[in-house]
Amino acid sequence: MSRAELKKIYVVEKIIDGLMTNSEGAMTLGISVRQMIRLKNKYKAEGAPGIAHKNRGRKPVHALSDEMKDRTAELYTSKYHGSNSCHFAELLQEHEDIQLSSSSVRRILLAKGLKQAKQRRRTAHQPRQRRAQAGMLWQIDATPYAWLEDRAPAFALHAAIDDATGIVVGAVFRPNECREGYSLVMQQGMTKYGVPLGLYSDRHTIFRSPNEKLTVEQELAGESKPLSNFGKAMAELGIEHIQALSPQAKGRIERLWVTFQDRLVIELRLLGITTMEAANEALPLLIQKHNQRFAVAPRSSEPAYMELSEDIRLEHVFTVREYRTLGAGQTLSYGGNTYTFAESLPQHFPVKTVVEVRETLTGDVLVWHQGQALLLKKTERPERQEQTKKASSAQPRKPAKDHPWKTTYDTTVTKRSTKRDSFQDAMYSQHNSYSEAYW
């Protein structure tokens, strides 16, 4: 019996022995006088067992059966292993038609000695307040992970989340973190929701240019600072691009990766997906399911999205941009190939005109001029005609004996020697004549 029940028996015995009144006993136990009288009569009729609770040792009617507990534990270890208690309860209701709360699931797993595969790490970082309106700020990032576990190599998930609502506006799988993945995510979000006012990202070279100085072509084009191809697209759409200095600054997207790595892996496993292409096909429905579960209402119901103009084609915005000089015949060189305009132009560009060349995600190459896209096509380079007749090597010439190459040096040496000998003979004769006169 419990200590409370033993106390009741002690007080009732005092009342029966005349050492305490009903009022004093009721005050001691904190009950009414009428309830005190009922306890005294029950003790007289049944003794001490009458004071004990009648449900002690009896299994509750609404208690889970042992078969249900065993089945729940078996499903967790086989089909749904790695999921947390909340997600496991949702999966049981969705796929197995088993209605269990997350707390009940947790108690069952702990009783069976099963703990969650991933333990939550508590951090003391204070979260930043959400923006008031949807579309004021998006956070974008990518993370490589084994999304298909051992069924395929690891690849990167690119995604963007709205800061005010927590809605994932776009997501795509790519082999590696790349500009194409971020461009596809932005196109998905802007096509469905609109153009956001701001974008929060890290300082990857995809988002910022590693060049500190502008090229001559960029200065002629009127650019004030060097931007990456992605940064140029943001500037053209009027989106304020903020580059975070730490992961905590964009904590909304960082926490999204924890949720996806916890839930998305199991969802892809249940769908039997084994390739990245199949994962991309199933991703929109999984993102919709995630948004229905985790999206919140913003503080202001009025969205801040800018309307996407009809004359803006996003495939012409998210491109690789370079400057080229037009040559004769309206041609230019790009990517090791020679291009010319696919259609006749209403105006003729002068030779050596600097133009902006853009390459889309699908591989189309075009010239961007005054807000218009002029499509280019490859053209064959003129082939040089090979010389069929080669010049024969000249026959060696042997100079004659009286050729200056053979006679000049010897003749000069002979003349010089003759003159020197004559001069020496004259000086010697003069010296002898002087000597004879003296003596």
Structure description:
By secondary structure, this protein is α+β, with helices and mostly antiparallel strands. Helices cover 40% and strands 15% of the residues. The chain contains 13 helices and eleven strands. It has helices at residues 3-16, 22-29, 33-46, 66-78, 85-96, 102-111, 179-192, 216-220, 229-237, 251-270, 276-294, 314-317, 404-438; strands at 138-145, 155-162, 168-174, 198-201, 240-243, 320-325, 331-334, 337-341, 354-359, 365-369, 372-379. The chain has a six-stranded antiparallel β-sheet, with no helix packed on it. Strand 9 and strand 10 form a beta hairpin.
Brief sketch in words of this structure:
With 439 residues, the protein is an alpha+beta fold. The chain has helices at 3-16, 22-29, 33-46, 66-78, 85-96, 102-111, 179-192, 216-220, 229-237, 251-270, 276-294, 314-317, 404-438; strands at 138-145, 155-162, 168-174, 198-201, 240-243, 320-325, 331-334, 337-341, 354-359, 365-369, 372-379. Helix 1 (3-16) runs antiparallel to helix 2, helix 1 (3-16) packs across helix 3 and helix 5 packs across helix 6 (102-111).
Order of H and E elements: HHHHHHEEEHEHHEHHHEEEEEEH
Give the overall silhouette: elongated
Quick check: average pLDDT? Answer: 84
**Number of beta strands:** 11
User: What is the share of helical residues?
Assistant: 40-55%
Rg computed from alpha carbons, rounded to a whole number of angstroms? 47 Å
Q: Indicate the low-confidence ranges by residue numbers.
A: none
The helix count comes to: 13
Instruction: Give the biggest beta sheet.
Output: 6 strands, antiparallel
In quaternary terms, these chains amount to single chain
Strand order of the largest sheet: 6-9-10-11-8-7
Secondary structural class: alpha+beta
Strand fraction equals: 5-15%
